[in-house]
């Protein structure tokens, strides 16, 4: 009986598949209404105001409640969402969005262009940590009618079109958030949006409960009755809850990689590595480039040569990664922004070349075999980072650099690296986000040397040519020309090695097999789960 | 007469506790200033990088740009008005946050207290009665193991055995968040979730009280009043229950009173392992987020709790041992 039914379904699937277009639910199997999905998020979000905090836990909850103007497919191509269509004119300085009609907020009020204007101009441009940059070129939003929003820009900002998802730019109701101080708004933690799920309750330390929005604008969606987001502080317990089927979905390293490998073998668990393409974390070693000996390019190159990328991926990240040399993730290969045509540090004779470089740089080995001593600050993000720090110590020892390790808590480490610059070498992973302008420039453009601002140019490297190229790429509307600019930028920074990029992280999402269509876009767990369903 | 004296004594003690609690608040405030980094850095860090204007604005909004003494003065003034302030990280008043998490903590602490003190007294008494038999040795060995095993490990093992293998108890949480039970079903559900965390947190204290109880019972059994009682012809059972037990309880009660504070500390681990939504976890998270308003609020409440429990212990003394009189007033 069963195989027959599956065959029949396959037939239906292929038929529907032809008719299926961007927005339509992918008809994989007969989706079923009902069921509760338990998502594990770690740590508990401090707030549900995703317009003011881009922290990963906040985004995973709030994206079920708020929609964005756009969604994206796996090639990072924009798709309609609250905006039905859009046109870019005036050399990229005018963007006109045609908004969907008949959309209602969870409180029953209609969604109009006034909400878009308010959200971007009054909220995202002012208080969103990344929106301040994303929308910096937007001077005004005109609303000739409730279904039209016209963005006026001083200069073209092609990257802005990549930052309009429900995660990056959630659309808020003006009639709710328009009154009172947006920074400490009472509705931050009782959000009202247009998304497939409505906020019901947040019991701190336990869960957030989201119930199905019966008036969702996508007909027939969502399939699930409820999403419960649970907070479980202990890694072992998180894995146990998933193993037992008490919880159904967990990603972003909520389950450590060694547990992922163990859970993968269970019959009720599936592992998914897609769904992080709009984040694209790249791991880097940071050098304090204004402090000797790291002001010497040969020293930085030598350290980059000393890291065996595949070893790190296999042993620290349990295989969830991909070796790299440069700052831009290979997820940008379809758009041409990623370039492999850079200096290659990932070579079999890396240690020999590193030793030669250090000899040339004027740091000969002393009698005890060491060249100089440094302190390596471990990234305080958890197990794999601690092991990565220990590996780096060993790798450096092989080329005669004696490193002692320092491990501090997140706040102390952030201050050391991004405010006091009181470090030699540290590591981090920065998200590329949906466009290099949003996620890549900040790591080495000299405009981003900002004491006190975290996750920017903490290496304090500055190169006029690279800056100029990045400034051009920022406003270049032609994708092909932008790709050429990024090819050149990558060539320059990889050779100069202000940071040593080692690998792209492939986050793993642990899924209960009974739940389908949970990860359906590059936004992954930042998707709205409107198409997720339970067998 | 005795009753009114007890009440007057209690009130006086409470009054005396005010400067103690304030001292704790000031000390905590100053200690927290020593921690590097502040809430604005952490929030900006979680945001994945933010412009300096944003961080500066956060700092101004949190009042972190004020001189330290001004901050302290403001905080003390608010505490005296019982205003614990606002947690910017959680976008909620500190008092609300704490009260929300207080009752799960009290539930876990209460259950642990009953199990560890009650169990410790009974097992310790039995061990003393069975002294130097195999049963006494068994109890002692188990107690030492329970005493020496780390809490988190016990918790994880209990989850593995009783939740995953045997499927008797849920792995974590305080109630079933898929079912959302109500009424009696909810109470039973919570009790069901309470079992493993209570056992985990109790084992250490259970072992401690067992050892203590065994030692004091043995000591009391050699005391002269026991010989006297025996000479008077009382049965062994009556001597144990009426005389030895009451006297042997005093050190256990003292110990239990002192350890209420430690119980809060131990509950951080257990709450984390079992995702129990209590104060311990909240304190832990707020420390790493440098959410000092919230942390100071929790410290303040803990200090009050310890003061109250100690007072209760003193009152229990009087009830247990008529020789102890309340004095002072």
Describe this structure in words.
The complex is a heterodimer of chains A (535) and B (329). With 535 residues, chain A is α+β, with helices and mostly antiparallel strands. Chain A has 15 helices and 21 strands. In chain A, the strands form five sheets. Chain A has a seven-stranded mixed beta sheet, with helices on one face. Chain A has a six-stranded mixed beta sheet with strand order 14-18-13-17-15-16. In chain A, helix 8 (297-306) packs antiparallel against helix 10 and helix 14 packs antiparallel against helix 15 (479-496). The longest helix of chain A has 18 residues, at 2-19. The model of chain A is unreliable at 1-26 (pLDDT under 50). Chain B has a domain at 95-288: MetI-like (MetI-like fold, Orthogonal Bundle), CATH 1.10.3720. Chain B has 329 residues and is mostly helical. Chain B has a two-stranded antiparallel ribbon. The longest helix of chain B has 39 residues, at 183-221. The mean pLDDT of chain B is 84. Chains A and B meet through helix 6 and helix 12 of A and helix 2, helix 3, helix 5, helix 7 and helix 10 of B.
């Amino acid at each position: 009986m069963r195989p027959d039914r599956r065959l029949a379904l396959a037939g239906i699937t292929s038929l529907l598949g032809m008719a299926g277009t961007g927005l339509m639910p992918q008809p994989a199997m007969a989706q079923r209404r009902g069921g509760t999905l338990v998502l594990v998020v770690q740590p508990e979000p401090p707030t549900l105001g995703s317009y003011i905090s881009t922290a990963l836990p906040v985004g995973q909850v709030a994206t079920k409640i708020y929609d964005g103007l756009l969604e994206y497919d796996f090639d990072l191509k924009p798709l309609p969402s609250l905006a039905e269509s859009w046109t870019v004119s005036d050399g990229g300085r005018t963007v006109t969005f045609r908004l969907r009609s008949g959309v209602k907020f969870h409180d029953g009020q209609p969604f109009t262009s006034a909400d878009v204007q308010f959200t971007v101009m009054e909220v995202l441009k002012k208080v969103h940590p990344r929106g301040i940059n994303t929308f910096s070129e937007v001077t005004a939003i005109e609303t000739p009618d409730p279904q039209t929003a016209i963005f006026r820009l001083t200069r073209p900002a092609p990257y802005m079109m990549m930052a309009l998802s429900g995660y990056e730019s959630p659309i808020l109701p003006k009639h709710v958030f328009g009154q009172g101080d947006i920074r400490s708004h009472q509705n931050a933690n009782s959000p009202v949006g247009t998304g497939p799920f409505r906020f019901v309750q947040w019991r701190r330390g336990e869960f957030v409960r989201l119930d199905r929005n019966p008036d969702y604008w996508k007909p027939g969606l969502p399939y699930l009755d409820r999403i419960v987001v649970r907070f479980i502080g202990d890694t072992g317990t998180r894995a146990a809850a998933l193993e037992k089927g008490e919880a159904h979905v967990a990603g972003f390293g909520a389950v450590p990689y060694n547990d992922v490998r163990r859970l993968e073998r269970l019959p009720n668990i599936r592992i998914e590595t897609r769904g992080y393409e709009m984040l694209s974390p790249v791991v880097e070693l940071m050098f304090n480039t204004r402090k000797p000996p790291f002001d010497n390019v040969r020293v930085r190159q030598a350290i980059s040569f000393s890291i065996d990328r595949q070893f790190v991926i296999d042993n620290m990240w349990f295989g969830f990664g991909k070796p790299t040399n440069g700052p831009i993730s290979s997820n940008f290969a379809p758009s041409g922004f990623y370039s492999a045509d850079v200096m290659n540090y990932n070579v079999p004779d890396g240690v020999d070349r590193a030793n030669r470089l250090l000899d040339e740089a004027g740091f000969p080995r002393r009698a005890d075999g060491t060249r100089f001593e440094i302190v390596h600050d471990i990234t305080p993000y958890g197990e794999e980072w601690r092991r990565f720090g220990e590996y780096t110590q060993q790798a450096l020892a092989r080329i005669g650099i004696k490193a002692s390790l320092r491990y501090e808590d997140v706040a102390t480490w952030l201050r050391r690296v991004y405010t006091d610059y009181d470090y030699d070498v540290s590591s981090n992973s920065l998200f590329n986000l949906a466009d290099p302008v949003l996620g890549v420039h900040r790591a080495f453009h000299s405009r981003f040397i900002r004491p006190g601002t975290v996750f920017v140019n903490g290496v304090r490297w500055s190169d006029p040519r690279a800056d100029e190229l990045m400034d051009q790429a920022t406003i270049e509307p032609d994708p092909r020309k932008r790709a050429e600019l990024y090819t050149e930028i990558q060539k320059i920074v990889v050779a100069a090695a202000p940071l040593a990029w080692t690998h792209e992280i492939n986050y793993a999402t642990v899924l209960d097999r009974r739940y389908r269509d949970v990860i359906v876009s590059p936004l992954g767990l930042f998707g709205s789960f409107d198409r997720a369903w339970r067998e | 007469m005795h009753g009114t004296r007890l009440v007057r004594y209690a009130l006086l003690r409470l009054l005396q506790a005010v400067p103690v609690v304030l001292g704790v608040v000031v000390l905590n405030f100053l200690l927290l200033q020593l921690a590097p980094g502040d809430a604005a850095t952490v929030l900006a860090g979680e945001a994945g990088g933010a412009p300096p204007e944003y961080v500066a604005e956060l700092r101004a909004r949190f009042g972190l740009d004020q001189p330290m003494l001004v901050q302290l003065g403001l905080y003390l003034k608010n505490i005296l008005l019982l205003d614990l302030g606002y947690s910017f990280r959680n976008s909620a008043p500190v008092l609300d946050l704490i009260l929300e998490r207080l009752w799960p903590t009290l539930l876990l602490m209460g259950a642990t207290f009953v199990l560890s003190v009650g169990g410790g007294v009974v097992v310790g008494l039995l061990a003393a009665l069975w002294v130097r038999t195999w049963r006494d040795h068994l109890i002692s060995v188990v107690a030492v193991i329970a005493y020496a095993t780390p809490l988190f490990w016990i918790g994880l093992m209990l989850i593995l055995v009783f939740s995953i293998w045997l499927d008797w108890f849920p792995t974590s949480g305080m109630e079933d968040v898929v079912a959302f039970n109500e009424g009696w079903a909810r109470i039973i559900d919570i009790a069901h979730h309470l079992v493993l965390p209570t056992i985990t947190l109790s084992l250490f204290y259970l072992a401690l009280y067992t050892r203590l109880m065994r030692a004091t019972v043995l000591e009391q059994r050699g005391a002269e009043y026991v010989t006297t009682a025996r000479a008077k012809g009382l049965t062994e059972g009556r001597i144990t229950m009426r005389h030895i037990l009451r006297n042997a309880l005093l050190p256990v009660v003292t110990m239990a009173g002192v350890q209420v504070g430690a119980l809060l500390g131990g509950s951080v681990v257990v709450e984390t392992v079992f995702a129990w939504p209590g104060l311990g976890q909240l304190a832990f998270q707020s420390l790493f987020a440098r959410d000092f308003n919230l942390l100071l609020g929790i410290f303040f409440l803990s200090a009050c709790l310890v003061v109250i429990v100690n007072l209760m212990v003193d009152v229990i003394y009087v009830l247990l041992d008529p020789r102890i009189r309340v004095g002072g007033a």
